[in-house]
Amino acid sequence: MIRTQIIRKLEKVKDPELKEVLISFLEEVERIIGETVTRKEFREFVKQTQENFDRVWHAIKELTEAQKRTEERLNELAEAQKRTEERLNELAEAQKRTEEELNELAEAQKRTEEELAKLAGEHRKTREQVGGLSHSIGYILEDRAYKGLPEILQERYGIKLIEPLKRDYIEVGRNKYLEVNILGRGRIDGKELYIVGECKTQLKKKDVDKFLKYAKNLDRYLRGEKFIVFVTYQASPPVAKYVKEKGLNLIYSYELPL
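The chain above was modelled as a monomer; its predicted structure follows.
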């Protein structure tokens, strides 16, 4: 009966190797019992064997449950590892796309900088051309002023030139000069004065203020009364009014005799 119970329990053992060990153990026990023990000793031995086997069986059940839990935990960890690897792959792909986009942006930035450099070069050339053209127009206006102003000065202001008008430089120090667009000398009512002026293609208020400051520096080198005149192609009414309020003189290019 005891053996039958043990065999039934052994049938529940899933591990083939463990089952084989237990069966071999029982067979060895039977052999020893058949050879050495009395009926009373056999009963005592069987009882002890049953108790020991129960303890072993209980331990085996606990180990089996622990193994089952371990396997379940390992499966959970394997799934977590799989999800982690999938997430890492997604991040790697996203990183790859980001790097590709950054490379595209870097290339676009490089092309933009090249275009900007090209435009800057073209703009510089345009400014140089415009500046050269502006200077040319300014010089033309100055040349016309030198020829036409003497007549206007005499007819409108009663000033007769005693020294021709010209573009000149006044030495203010060693290798230092002040440029004057219009510079000459005249006489009015027996009194001599300097004719000092500026030619501007389009006169603005800031040009007037700048020249007045410039004229103050000239006072140290051109001592005496000064007749200040502006010659321009164009000046807005507010600017013309400002020139008059400052006690200065304004002559338009179309007023100059040809």
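Residues 240 and 250 are 7 Å apart (CA to CA).
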